[in-house]
Specification:
single chain; 178 residues; mainly alpha
């Protein structure tokens, strides 16, 4: 399988799983509490218990399903972002974009690290959902969530910068008639 085909399939699976997660997030919100991000950032046993109380059984069921499905999402988006960062770095090397190529050395492992923090976060959230882990489980989840968001934002910024450079260079290249 080519990298391009893998990227397309991973993008499709990421969007498809993301839609399922969005529906489950809507069920959490409809039950009276925040969505999953609010739970990710609860940070304490007390706040996690408040959210669980707001959700009730229906919201908790949606959150539990969301967290288990999230593991497939993590694999999908983690692989997509890692492969996209590799492709962007290779493009940067071919195009002579030295700073982009250097940044790619960091962006590639940051994509995998962000996905890894997401997986650890889900462990903390599942523990908190089950009433286990005391203050440690929601705190672990919140710390991992913040790290995940920060790392993935850096990777996405790298990919967008690569896309902008590619568009800039493509527009600057004369066409067949000029």
């Amino acid at each position: 399988m080519t990298r391009r085909r893998a990227l397309v399939l991973l993008a499709i699976s990421t969007v498809a799983i993301g839609i399922v997660l969005a529906v489950l997030d809507g069920r959490m919100r409809d039950s009276g509490g925040p969505g999953i991000v609010g739970f990710e950032l609860a940070g304490s046993e007390e706040r996690a218990a408040e959210i669980l109380g707001e959700w009730g059984e229906e919201g908790e069921d949606a959150a539990r399903a969301s967290l288990w499905i999230d593991y497939a999402y993590i694999l999908s988006y983690g692989a997509f972002l890692t492969l996209a960062a590799i492709a962007t770095r290779e493009l940067a090397l071919r195009s002579g974009w030295r700073r982009m190529a250097s940044a790619g050395v960091a962006a590639i492992p940051l994509a995998a690290a962000g996905a890894s923090f997401d997986a650890i976060e889900d462990v903390g959230l599942l523990l908190a959902l089950g009433g286990h882990g005391g203050d440690l489980a929601p705190l672990l989840a919140a710390v991992c969530a913040v790290l995940k968001f920060a790392l993935l934002a850096l990777v996405i910024a790298y990919l967008l910068a690569g896309l902008l450079l590619r568009l800039r260079d493509h527009r600057g290249t004369p066409g067949p008639n000029g």
